[in-house]
Design brief:
Length: 241
């Protein structure tokens, strides 16, 4: 989105910081939006600004982050002003903050609250959860290391290591796109674990996996990956310490 580099603040700074606020406008300006069209990599949204108590004609400015003026409209009645915008999903979330400024002919103005469109536009269910269970001995005894990652999902995912009884043992919220890594000491008795990936839209679980993989196997000699409870702890050819 190429925007003219007009600064709302620069234009109106003088009036907003004057000591005596003549004809002070206290009423609210409302800001709302709806998604008009969904494209693979973008959305067309309609942003509506409405200042009920400002005397018309009202100059509505739609401002983005850093107070960059995106669009302007003069409305001669008490009707709201609407702006249609094309938003690309490449934009970083903070580029999607908008507010409206309604100014009367006297130059007095009032701003709406900030509209943050990030979650609603970016929301994606958790998909393709992959979990790797591994037993490593890095010299200080064996540890179980579990790495969990999804291919996509937004808002950011909270990963949990969950027991068969549903109990959450460990939890992590890595930065978007990064895997979660859990590490713990294997217990004497095998137990079933699974990885859970959840955002506030959806949740996924990996297969229940036996940890440690089997009591007959020589754990202390074991180093490798296993992904299903039936696989031996040390697959043939796996390196050992
Ligand atoms: C918005 O973007 C879509 C797809 O990228 C395009 O087809 C459409 O013409 C654009 N609309 C405007 C108003 O720029
Ligand atoms: C998990 O490990 C991977 C690979 O070492 C790393 O890129 C990632 O940042 C780690 N995740 C966390 C939450 O530390
Ligand atoms: C998800 O969480 C975000 C931030 O807390 C919130 O704005 C959004 O409305 C939530 N979405 C759903 C579907 O609950």
């Amino acid at each position: 989105m190429r925007l003219p580099g007009l600064l709302c603040l620069a234009v109106l700074a003088a009036s907003s910081f004057s000591e005596v606020q003549e004809e002070e406008i206290t009423p609210d300006v409302s800001i709302a939006y709806k998604v008009l069209e969904v494209f693979p990599k973008g959305r067309r949204v309609l942003i509506t600004c409405h200042a009920l108590q400002v005397p018309p004609p009202i100059t509505y400015s739609l401002c983005g982050t850093k107070n960059i003026k995106v669009a302007k409209k003069v409305v001669k009645t008490h009707k709201p002003a609407s702006f249609s915008l094309n938003i690309t999903l490449k934009s970083s979330p903070d580029l999607l903050t908008y507010f409206c400024r309604a100014a009367s002919t006297s130059g007095a103005h009032v701003d709406s609250a900030r509209l943050q469109m990030y979650w609603e536009l970016w929301s994606k269910p958790v998909s393709e959860l992959r979990a790797n269970f591994a037993l490593w001995d890095r010299g200080s005894g064996p540890r179980v290391e579990v790495s969990c990652q999804v291919s996509s999902g937004s808002p950011p995912i909270t990963y949990s290591l969950v027991g068969k009884d549903g109990q959450v043992h460990l939890q992590q919220r890595p930065r978007p796109g990064e895997p979660a890594n859990f590490s713990f000491l294997p217990s004497q008795t095998s137990d079933w674990f699974q990885c859970q990936a959840e955002n506030n839209i959806s949740v996924q679980h990996s297969a229940l996996t036996l940890v440690p993989p089997g009591r007959d196997q020589k754990m202390q000699d074991c180093q490798g990956l296993w992904s299903a409870p039936s696989l031996p702890c040390c697959p043939t050819g796996a390196p050992t310490i």
